[in-house]
Amino acid sequence: MAGGQSPRNLNKPCILLIVIAGMERFSFKGVASNLVTYLTDVGKMSNSAAAKMVNNWCGVTSMLPLLVAPLADSYLDRYTTVLASSSLYFAGLLALTSLALQWPWTSLDKSGFSSSLSWSLHLISLGQAGYNPSLQAFAADQLDDEEELPCTKNDQSSKKKSTFFHWWYFGICCGSLLGVSIMSYIQDTLGWGLGFAIPSIAMIVSIVVFRFGNRFYTHNTDGEIIHIKSLGGHIVKAIRAATSRLTCGEIAVPDTNKSKVVEIELENAPLCQQDSGSTEGTDPENGIVEILKVVLPLLPVWTMLLMFAVIFQQPATFFTKQGMTMRRNIGSSFRIPPAALQSSITISIILLMPLYDTCFIPFIRVLTRNEKGITVMQRMGIGMFLSVIAMIIAAVTERKRLDIARNVGTLTSEFEALPMSIFWLLPQYILLGISDIFTVVGMQEFFYSEVPINMRTLGIALYTSVFGCGSFFSSFLITVIEHLTSSIGEKQNWFADDMSRARLDNYYWFLALSSAASFMMFMVFCRFYRSRTVN
């Protein structure tokens, strides 16, 4: 690929860990992508209840790394964290498989089923909380130039880091594609027991491969230990420091150019221009202060990405429910599983990501005169804009589906479909895939690069937590909107179980407008933000 983005620039341990990450995504997407169908068909939940449960579970899954990552960075090495958390991950998948197989000893009433399902899903969440950020940070540790500080201005180091995140996302997209396309078909046609057993097998195979690859790995433990004490006082100090930084008229993260290699020192001087040269070393007693000094300046970016994360939840919930009402036959016998259409997101990523390097970057490099073409912040902004366009298209398409549904009348069975092809949903899926190439990859590089080397697991956790909070926020929006619209009358409920009466088009317009507002604020913020890295 052009632009130095060839996988040949990565060493063998990096490539092996990218493959392992893809296997994990296969397992997770094999469960998550069609979970809303499992909840409505097997769990007999309403559309809104199923969507909220999926959103809440995804939220917990993405938020837990924020709690686990500081402990992993402080008291465990990343290799050990990956092994321990993957065991919990597999245990959760095994419990979910046992529940779906409906063996005699797993025969449960509705209350017991809901409780067992919740325990299984949250055990997966707990395992993934340590697994994903630690695995990605451990894989990045395998880069040959990892001894350099994250604030280095070395162009070659920046290109290699960008290449790693580029191919890391490519790898997990391949795993996601297989998980969504293959597993949704198996679950819909061959049963949920087999549909959950295969992801469990894939997960245990990935654990074995990771364990036997140990002799190839570089174990970097320098500067990983941070002891956290005196929590209350340090939080107050960090908040006061961040407030001082904001009132100085410029948002910046601490400079680390004068740091030591083994123990990163964060700048603790007054945050205006005066006395900016003095620094204070990282005391083990003040670990929480140093964490908050890094995290708090990133919160504005984190917050403005939330609406992108809310949009990110739609393919696995309401997009899938839309597809269940549409014509999805290919030939006389084959029916496309609605969740399988999510694979178009990953297919578009896999097919178009090479064009990002070979076409987009060379063209934009001429305009910007930037060796990387665009900065990380610009990359995220482009993806945010594309997600707004995707929701506008989704709203228009849903309105067309509703018009057809009202002309046809109420469907008499779950197997009867509207005379509208499910492929009408493809444009919104594909646009979300293109937006992912920009925003998701940019988010990974941004949050990884904007933290010191001894907090990089926490940086990856910050990235995943955006989607966690986005999931919770999505559930909150559904709850509030459902309450407001259903109080007017059942026919006005935006999330009615009868999809011919639901008003998802209004919901999509609401998301489009909210996301556009976040995008505008992000553009303004970027003018004042000073990164710790050279993009």
Automatic annotation (TrEMBL):
Keyword set, alphabetical order: Membrane, Transmembrane, Transmembrane helix
Residues spanning the membrane: 54-72, 78-101, 167-186, 192-210, 294-312, 345-368, 380-397, 417-439, 460-481, 507-529
Organism for this UniProt entry: Solanum pennellii
InterPro entries recorded: MFS_trans_sf, POT_fam
Gene3D superfamilies: MFS general substrate transporter like domains
UniProt topology in membrane: Multi-pass membrane protein
Name this protein carries in UniProt: Protein NRT1/ PTR FAMILY 5.8
Originating gene: LOC107008821
Localization per record: Membrane
Family named by the database record: Belongs to the major facilitator superfamily. Proton-dependent oligopeptide transporter (POT/PTR) (TC 2.A.17) family.
